[in-house]
Design a protein that fits this description.
Layout: E1 2-9, H1 15-28, E2 32-39, H2 50-67, E3 73-83, H3 86-99, E4 103-108, H4 116-121, E5 124-127, H5 135-154
Parallel strand pairs: 1-2, 1-4, 3-4, 3-5
Helix pairs in contact: 1-5, 3-5
Length: about 160
């Protein structure tokens, strides 16, 4: 069984985001050993300097990298990443299960994104869209797309 984890910065504050992730997590349990790992978010002032942002990204990046499972393929979600269709994401997951480590870690940064260290460690850089989304919503969207990917790979009715 493939291992899939989402490593993300910060906690989901709103119950509806937590409930949505919990629902997709439950659905995925038949396809994968699925988990969501949250790392602490650094607090910044309202008008942070470039230096403060850089320090924040470095600290959050170190936390992220420490949580990546040994041998896992890393997919970093970042604005400069490649936009994948649902079918392409499903193929990426299938390839990892069949030919890769059988473990994939999706990484979502905080509101300032991901450190360059995390991006360099990534095997794949993914973008969800050319639009900008809050990282809490991105987590729910990623859970849904990973679930959709499993449904695509088994020929399920969920994906139309």
């Amino acid at each position: 069984m493939i291992k899939v984890c989402i490593i993300c910065v910060g906690k989901l504050k709103e119950a509806y985001w937590r409930e949505a992730c919990a629902e997709y997590s439950k659905r995925m349990s038949r396809f994968a050993d699925f988990s969501i790992i949250e790392v602490d978010e650094e607090k910044l002032p309202d008008q942070p300097s470039e230096s403060q942002i850089g320090n924040t990204l470095k600290k959050e990046g170190e936390r992220i990298l420490s949580k990546i499972p040994q041998g896992a393929s890393i997919a970093a979600l970042c604005i400069e990443g490649k936009i994948y269709s649902s079918e392409q994401l499903a193929q990426l997951m299938e390839d990892n299960a069949s030919y890769g480590s059988g473990s994939i870690a999706f990484v979502i940064g905080g509101s300032w994104g991901l450190s360059e260290e995390v991006k360099r460690a990534a095997d794949v850089r993914l973008s969800m869209s050319k639009m900008t989304f809050p990282h809490q919503l991105a987590r729910v969207m990623l859970c849904e797309q990973v679930y959709r990917g499993f449904q695509i790979n088994i020929g399920g009715k969920y994906h139309k």
